[in-house]
Amino acid sequence: MRHATSRLVIASLLCWSTLVPASAFQDPPRKVFSSRSEVVIVHVSVLDRKAQLVAGLPREAFSLFENGQPAPVSFFHNEDNPVTVGLVIDCSGSMQRKRDAVIAAGLAFARSSHPQDEMFTVNFNEQVWNGLPPSTPFTTDFEQLRAALQRSTTRGQTALFDGVRTALAHLGQGHLQKKVLIVVSDGGDNASSTKFENVLNAALTMDAVIYAIGMYDQYDREAKPDLLRKLAGATGGSAYFPNDPAEATNILERIAREIRSGYTLGYVPAAGEGYRAIRVEVRSPDGRKLSVHARTGYIAGASAENHDRQ
Prior knowledge:
Elements: H1 9-16, E1 40-47, E2 62-66, E3 69-70, E4 75-77, E5 84-90, H2 99-112, E6 118-124, E7 128-130, H3 142-150, H4 160-171, E8 179-185, H5 196-204, E9 209-214, H6 225-235, E10 239-240, H7 248-260, E11 263-267, E12 274-282, E13 291-293, E14 297-300, H8 304-308
Parallel strand pairs: 5-6, 5-8, 8-9, 9-10
Antiparallel strand pairs: 1-11, 1-13, 2-3, 2-12, 4-11, 6-7, 12-14
Helix pairs in contact: 2-3, 2-7, 4-5, 5-6
């Protein structure tokens, strides 16, 4: 499986140069944006007391800590830039009556997203497959995404963890600096060869943000909402559990707004390997009480495959 590897920041700037002016970048080029690199990046969303997204905060409003120690912010960015985003869709048989709602929600998300987001879809039942043709690993074309979503069929069992891990590997091939996965499923996992811990390790070696929508039936004994909450929370995303499949559209539109109004912070980590805890604090210039969503840690210095074997 492919995971985030060290990149030169100048490569990221070249990728963005046609999308934003050079003046938008407040820092000189640094070496990398990855969990196992000279600069660790942390994507942050800020909410007020009414759970409304807060944009426009200055760099000085944020403080970063690694393993409880202050980590000076060496990179700060708060522009609305395109991202690489994957929709990971449960196509097991139990999703049949929810399929139309999922397609509508996915299209609503695309309409609310940055027009230059590069998107892809991964479908899973007991098997896992890409929704786009092999010749098109990513797309910015709304109609291509619509066709990929509408081609999905529902049957079979649920290999949720296999689907997420495959999507993480594909996400790592994206060309844009911020990477997001959105997982939509209605149950637990009864068909994967991948363990949840391996999926979590894979996510923690990347700087991806994962959002989850659990469309569970009330009496579904295989549902495991705590695992979706853990995966989303560890990466700085959120997990949602709508009572009605039709609510997924509003949720995905909110996620699109959150992605576009977020902040990217970077810091130079201490040397060494293993798990590092991250904490982000924010103070509003006007004294408002604010809260943050950010990943809670990452695995430094080793690939997820190595951790899988431990």
